[in-house]
Amino acid sequence: MSNAQVDAAAPRPREQWTGQVGFILSAIGSAVGLGNIWRFPGVAYENGGGAFIIPYLIALITAGIPILFLDYAIGHRFRGSAPMAFRRLGGKWLENLGWFQVMICFVIGLYYTVVIAWALSFFVFSFDLRWGDDPAAFLTGDYLQVADPGISFEFVPGVLIPLAIVWIATIAVLAAGVAKGLQRVNVIFLPLLVVAFLILVVRALFLDGAAEGLNALFTPNWQALGDPDVWIAAYSQIFFSLSIAFGIMITYASYRNRKANLTTPGLVVAFANSSFEILAGIGVFATLGFFAFQQGVAIEELEGLTGVGLSFVTFPAIVSQMPGGPIFGALFFGSLTMAGFTSLISVMQVVSAGFQEKFGLTVRQAAIRVGGVAAIISIVLFSTTTGLLALDVADQWANNIGIVASAVLTSVLVLWVLRRGPELRTHLNALSTFKVGRIWLVLTSVLAPIVLGYMLISRIVTLSVEGYGGLPGWYLVAIGWGAIIAILLGTFVLSALRWRQDPERFAPWPSYPPGGTAATTGRNASDGGAS
């Protein structure tokens, strides 16, 4: 395709949320995911209990919210998915960062879908308590049929079928578009999730031993505040739970109208996400208190307090022992399914939007083509007898290396190399009721890269030296480092391909410096692709 053909390609009108409420609910739906339910309670318990709330809130205010605002500013000012927004912000070389974020989302989407499929299966299993008296053996044996580390093509029908259902639902939502797809699902699912989880929490609070569980979670260990690892855990939890720094909030903010308030909704999203995490902690530990009471042991003697073990082993065991267990189990796994699905569609929207804009695809074309390819890879890799191990390893590398590296690069390249911080701060303040001061620039350009850089380096060293989970080195290289290599290859290949329309045929609005005239190559500066 010639340059003339590229320049002549007329951009499609940009999709938009129907209003501020739709955006806020969708952003909260993205932030509230599996990690809120199965990760936060255990992390808080292991890092000082009630005392952990202090570094947690400090991390929220000094890193979580500032980086969330940074994502909003980039996406809203430059009106595009991550690749287009970074291309418009810094030129062709910075487009690589956008595709890096797209590829992270693509890899995460492959395995995140599988956990939702498990939750959907266990929602059904709850009604007849199919896991029996030994949920651990049921999970790894009867249900997942876990094999030794390796690459297996022995498919597990009990996983493959719900996984295919989740992918079909995901593609359908993406194909319906931003307003009729993503927003509508979040408007329905998020209130249902909150109501279902509130019912679950209220029920848990009246179980025998609930008070002991809450005491275990919230009793402060003030000595833990002197441990740097506790602070790193707090920043890590905030960072991963807010859906920041890997393209989601950049993409979501780009669908807001030109004069939309940015910072106030951002505060609502951040504190709503944290509120749900604390609610999840109350529900989970009240339930664990009941389990410890039934077992005649202390909370600290229980196993499986986070992740897959908490959700698919410990909770089924609890459900089997409690009055009205099937209803409690259905509420828990229904909540897990809804929380996971609203986060999944936000992850895959980053990928879909990037391909729409680069290759001139319609919303439906991108959803079907990108979603179809992702579904095939996901089913081949994760619905087999080695799916659990592959998921665990891929998650460690994609989250702890991919996303953290993306955040560090964004901060350093945008704020230090290109020095666009003052422009982005001005953009936020020109449109928002809650103004950000120079401290915002300090937090995003100094504190964030220092804390996240330390997290990144320490995790790389740990994974390289100590390995992970006692798994063979060749397996970690193939799946873990292989995921990072795949992300990088995809980044460079997609960046090198030609755009269907010229991404730089654009002028940001409002102009910067204020009162200046933004240069444009054929588009009205006040429009900038927002129509």
UniProtKB/TrEMBL annotation:
Q: Which domain of life is it from?
A: Bacteria
Where this protein primarily resides, as one coarse class?
membrane
Q: Topologically, how does it sit relative to the membrane?
A: Multi-pass membrane protein
Q: Which residues cross the membrane?
A: 21-40, 52-75, 96-125, 159-178, 185-206, 230-255, 267-293, 327-355, 367-391, 397-418, 439-461, 473-497
Q: What does the UniProt entry say about where the protein is found?
A: Membrane
**Key words of the record:** Membrane, Transmembrane, Transmembrane helix, Transport
Region labeled Disordered — which residues?
508-531
Note whether Transmembrane occurs among the keywords: yes
The identity of this protein, by name, is Sodium-dependent transporter
- The record lists the organism as Agromyces humatus
